[in-house]
Amino acid sequence: MLQLTEAEVLNKIRHSIPFEAQLNDGSLTIRISEYQPYVATAIHNGRRLRGELMPKCSLGEDERYFEEDPFTGDFISSLPIVLQGEDSRYEYDLNRAPDNCIYDDAWGKSVWSEPLSEAERAISSEKHACYYRILGCLIDTLESQFGLCLLYDIHSYNYLRIERDTPVFNLGTGQINTRKWHKETKRLIELLEGIELPNIRVDAKINDVFKGMGYQATFIRQHFPNTLILPIEVKKIYMDEMRGESFPLVIEKLKEAMKTVITEHAAETIQRRTKVKRLTGSHVLASKLPREVLRLDRQLYSLARGVNTLSYINPTNLKQEKRRFLHRPHDYQPKFTYRQLDIDPYKFRENLYRLSVEDIRDADIQKMYRKVIDQLAVRIDLLTSIGHDEFLYNSLRYYGQPGQQDIANANFILHAREYREVEEETLTPSQAIQAFKDAAKRYGIACKVSGTNKLIARAMVSGRNIKVNLGCQFLPRDLNALIHHELGVHVVTTVNADKQPLKVLKLGLPGNTHTQEGLAILCEHLAGSFPLHRLKTLALRVIAVDSMVRGRSFSDTFNSLKHEHNLTNEDAFTVTARAYRGGGFTKDYLYLKGLRDALHCYQSEDLTSLFVGKTGFEFKPLLDELITRDILHKPAFLPEALMLKDANDPIINFMLQSIK
To answer: Of 42, 135, 435, 573, whose CA is between 20 and 30 Å from 370?
Structure first.
């Protein structure tokens, strides 16, 4: 990290230059990624004690640590302006007045085994003064630029020695003009009370344990009338108070929650107190992508870009096994063979978990990358086990399996009767290829369209390559659906991902299969190219996956589809093979589930952010935020189907509204 003198820090602040640095004596870390009218501080986060004082300190490191505020810097790491103290409060306490900032006794214990010299005290006092010169310069700069400033002053407190229930969050208002700032203090308590933590009942109160009488609040009150300081004490429910051991899952949730609470509170206050309109929490976060995110993103992409699940799972001898099976459909079990895995799974996992995700300070971005890495580790387990008994287990880990509601939805659809005459398959593969090429030209997307005999599906996208099954004939409506599905969503999101600064959107976020297929089928429906037989195919895939998971044989599932649901040999084999390839591939149940979730999202929200790449419904709030912050670009292309009005079939629409 950059090391700067006080003069260099002050110069950067006065000129509103973003920077990240430590003071050259190591006492303070300052991160200003963007100048916004609010600051977060963790002045008791540090535990350093300078070398010449160590022999004189009568307290051990654990004793000092007990009274410090560890991890409070982590809680505010997502925010654009952070001041984080690195020195122990036992050297000098930044929340005490200058003439009283060096302890002789603290919490009933003598701090020093021998008195400090005047020179030693002077060094500590100067560090204290330096902090307040920097803070004063920063607040003055922000007030001058924005007209007001907010300071979120984060601390933690020990609670086991307090013989009563105490709140998880305590807001001290003893030095706040509560008549002037009544709405702001009330709203902050409401937001804090809304935080959810694992296995912890959250409450927030004003002046219950502490009244906010620290010196930092005094300093702000005396010098900056247009700045609201909000001293927040967090109960040490995120660690074992006595042993000093942390609870990482609680800390992770606190990081996410404090980011949301502080940015939402700051945005609401700024909007209420200034002329700024339509401000959200996303608008008051930094708009520049941190270097540590870009670095990790490129490392991850370099490692994982060749891990394409379908290219390994599609059988290489599909045509031969299909012929053998249809000759003996009651007793022959296909023996599929697969492409060899050309990735060393052990090195892959090892390299995955060496990536420095902990360097990412934004809580939500960090969480996203952790989930991507975990998903890739499961994916490599899936690919390693293709053709073996454990493949089904890994597929269940990766994709899940149909639940009772999924099966109920499928059975509901399968009870519907056909109400239109089925078109004849009049289009050849070459005509289908040309139709895809024409559609790509209409979109203005450069992609390759070719035919192949190695697909189970009628068409498939790999990157910008569209492959059409040369063994199929195509109904006009079905071909239109395929174009909206494969080109309108899968290719469009591939091209959009190519234009984004984050390459993880090319790899795919967790849940991207569910999301991509749901959006793709939604577009078929919106384009009016989603007939009942197509909807039934999605339902039959759920039935086939459920049958496979319950242990029925390939031939049992095939014959059930053929005789109970009146499928042709061709269609029954295709649906069954999709579910049984690899050793039990559960992905296919996600098409219907994804359609349901995409439709619900379409009816209540703007879908735009989901098309920036290979995204997931779970990450839509973060994607919306990153677009608002100008970190991600709005998608260059959107599916044509989203612009079509009233093209969808009202009967299919009714059926889709009925599934849960």
So the answer is: 42
